[in-house]
Prior knowledge:
By secondary structure, the chain is mainly α. It contains 14 helices and no strands. The two termini are 43 Å apart. Keywords: Cell membrane, Membrane, Transmembrane, Transmembrane helix, Transport. Residues 70-283 form the ABC transmembrane type-1 domain.
Amino acid sequence: MTRVRRARNAPPWWFVLPALLLFAFVVLVPSVRGVYYAFTDWDGLNPDFSFVGLDNFSAMLSDADARQAVWHTLLIAVAITIVQNAVGLVLALGVNSAIKSRNLLRVFLFAPAVVTPIVTAYLWRNLLGPDGAVNSLLGAVGLDGWEQDWLGDPDLALWTVVGVVVWQYAGYSMVIFLAGLQSVPKEIHESAEMDGAGPVRRFWSVTRPLLAPALTINLMLSIIGGIKLFDQVYALTGGGPGHATDTISTLIYKDAFTLGEFGYSIALAVVLTIIVAVASTGQYLLLSRNEKAAS
């Protein structure tokens, strides 16, 4: 009877089988084949190619462009993660107050996040051009000395890309933080206020620990998104000027579709996957530990 009862309570795995087969066909099989091509000299077109072992991976160590792209990728990811979440938290605290226009502000601040990244990037590329609206506005208010070639200066281009990404997705982080703030019971704040705790003390001792789940989600999304960033970088600068804003993603695209080095580009993609996996796993373990300690 026990065996029969277990059989009846067992999940019907065959219902999941069609989805698993489709996932294997669309995702798993191409991924495994892609990993195999990373060890070849395939050019993407010729059916004849050779197995070269770890040559593609060892070539990265001597490729200055690849090393620079890895550095840019990590720099962008860290900068976006810190600035985006700091701005998102400030915005969430602002629109969580009792101001009358809070609902309108929430919609206004979240709106950029629903726009296609490529559209946003092309919009900002026009605004940030040498004769764009940003420089025109600076000149109109007497700040001519602040006019810059925002996307053409190697020292500014990378940070300009970071600024555009933060502008678009800070509202997304705001919404997640706002959900966390609204889940904090008002009674706790009222009790802390009655005990004499000021706004800063209430935030640090009461709100901040209860925001740990929202912070974990935001940090995970922003670090992974920053590491994989492609659309905005390619549309804004194309990886330039020179290689000043090249990331692993843009280098993968260039090596594959411009230089025809598909084997090498897939090896770069494997490295990118490893970086994402290590960063996300390490961050999740660290944040989960802090989240448990805070609770």
